[in-house]
Amino acid sequence: MRNSTATSILFLSVILFAACSKNETPVILNTLTSNTVNSLPADTIIGLVNGQPVGAGKFTFFSLANNKIIANSDSNSVNWDIAFRGTTIITNGGNSGPGAGGGFVYTGTFDALTAVPADSTIKVDNVPTSYAITTGSNKGWYVYDFVNNLITPIPGRVLVIKTASGKYAKVEILNYYKGGITPAATATDAIKTSFQRYYTFRYSYQGNGTKVF
Amino acid sequence: MQRFFLFLFAVKSLTLHAQQKTDSTFSKDMDEVVVTATKSPRLLGNVAIPVSVINAKTLYQSGSLRLNEILSEQTGIVVTDNFGKGIQVQGLSSDYTLILLNGEPLIGRTGGVLDLSRLSVRGVKKIEIIKGPSSSLYGSEAMGGVVNIITYDAANYKSDLNVRYGRFNTMDGSFDYARKFKHIQVNASFNVNSSEGYSLKPNANQKTVEPFWRSFQNANLSGQFNKHMKYGIGLRYNNTYIKNSINVQNGGVNVLSQGFEKSNEFNINPYVEYELNKSFKNVTRAYFTGFQAVQELAVKDIASGYNDRFQQSYIKFENQSNIQLSNYSEITFGIGVIKESVSSNRYDSLSTRRFNQILYTYAQWEKKLTPTLVLVGGARYDYNSAYASVLSPKIAFKYKLSHNIDFNLSYGRGFKAPDFRQLYLNFTNLAAGAYSVFGTEVAKVEMKRLIAGGLLDQATAMYDKLNVLKPETSGGLNLGMNVNFKKDLSLHINLFRNDLSNMIVTDIIGYKKNAGQIFSYFNLKRGLTEGLEAGFSKKMNGVFTVNGGYQFLYSADKDVLDAITRGQVYQRDLHTGIASVMHLKDYGGLPYRSMYTANVKLLYSSKNGVFATLRNIYRGKWGSVDMDGNGLINRSDEFAKGYLQTNASVGYKKDKWELMAGMDNIFNYKDPANLPGNPGRLSYINLQLHF
User: Fold this and answer.
1) Which end of chain B has fewer CB atoms < 10 Å from its terminal CB, N or C?
2) A1 inside domain
């Protein structure tokens, strides 16, 4: 797959609970997978309808657990965790899919989010009334600058995702344009339109079922 | 004992002025009489707040046609280009700068900006610039500063003819006429100014600056009833027509649309001045002004096209008395009433007029506390019918350490009343994102209409916070020092700080079903600007003058500073795209503010009528657009590049003729994205005939 898996690092870290007595030390294997996905197309623009740029209207489904795109035909399964269509992001749960997935938008940096906060609520999709990952400019993960016609992921927003199988992942969207570079504010609308709807994001997937990243 | 206060009942009766001159080592500029700082004639060297003056000679030799051109060459003033040419003073945007014509406010702002290119500098005797809040005398808008354009009156004007031709077929022609009769003096000016505009983008079917035609007529009449009583009237009519051939986005498609923009304004200000004796003077003034703007565009596929109309009128009556209690103490007292009205199809139908009435009174006391220390204290109270009332005090000290060193310290409060747009705007942009902006007085009604029509997706928490708008307020502190080493070298330095509160900003009150955002206005923001302004002037050999200035400016949104301190602001790396916590050092301050600005000017003026100027104006980088989604200026790609503009002119005067040639922006600097109003190199030739 050309657009993904630029870096794939497998962390196998061993957390040792330091023993202060002769008791047997419990050992927890912490399986954290971190990846960056480049320029994942998400219903890219195919033409104009009534002058408005439109895509084919289809989601791009993605498995965080297996770091790959899942075919559209396989969308009614637990094989995918997250899907993208324009600025809309759905998770495999609620009325979006058969999985146990959900999520929410966390405010803070990716690196500082070392565990899903204990007091947080995992939301599920109830499309079109509400989304686990809130849609709309300045409400969820992105801001739309209508003066310059640009969509920019808001810095300090991390998508906390509960996967189809109930595991946890954190996702930071880095860019919304092809090649991971936002066009200049002065670029033509034609460039801004044809380059948009390409997600570059990094994520960490915790395979052991804990909320720790 | 030399009198410190000089009460010049006519600007030209300079008996006392001369007396001051003989034992003062102030340079000639310090002997200039200014009227804006205290609303009474005062020697510039005696004013306790930062004032600068641009005189007619500088205006002429700089080859300026419009007000924005000459202001862009002044220290601490930055001309911005958004809804027309506005100015920043001490880092405050043009919304917060009051523009006066002969002491009376000009109206007709778009997006808060009074377009200075509307104003010709022909017939202008001088321009006085006050920095820091002056609402204690002038009321609303006098927060960052006051620019007072003072035109010639008949008494000190001559008839002349002036023609000019420059690049882009820019033509300017003026005829000025002055005549003195036994008891009456009249003068009149006529000016036409036109250009075919220019395009900064090759092959674009839309010009960067569209062709325009402007004209103005100005007439003054003044006379004397008797030796105690003078009267006068000023009349002015200003007209602008801009041809539009612009791209309009209609349903995502660019449509080249034809149309026009035109505006006109008139100003009428009669006055009667009564001077009983040296201790009592009274001036009664009336002021009527109206501004009208029309924009029409024929847009393909929209039968009605685009049609925008705006009408504003302003009527004011004011009485001011000056009472001299002693040689060391003077009181100024004023009272006035203002009635403003606006109608626009941006607000409602044109037939619905919105009104505001203001009753105000102000008082000022100038007192010489000791031979070297002067106090000026004053306050103004504005009672508004449409929004909360405001009290604006000001206090200033001037301390003369020696003949050639003095210090100024002043603190004043300024305010800006919510404008009609913030109260009544009802605007939906179908082209860009289908967003709407509603003024606070109409927002609730419009939201209910959207709900009733099933068009509202959701209201935000801000919707519940909609409230009656309060005036924006500021407090400004200025501490300055003036040094005059010898007759030919002077230095000044001024430290300033402005704290702004209740600043009005837009925020989202809801979302429409078609994803369009709905905005309204809130008293939310707190800002600060602080910095240092310094300048020097040096005369050499009697023919050369070098002067220069520098401003360091720090500006910030105080709530952003707090949020950064709390670690709640994030930024995104330009290359990796990775977000991190933002630190104070990364914050680039308020947009469009340059931290560094400077100028150096070389002037040559010989006795045989030859002059030359070389003026260098530097504007350091400024924040222009947010690119990393945090709404702030922080990343390197969010700044516009700093630039140097060099302008030059040469001229020769012989008998009744004056010939001048000039070139602005000699090095042809252009930045179409950030400086659309800068066409690059601009040369011109100017001929003047006096008769």
Assistant:
1) N
2) no
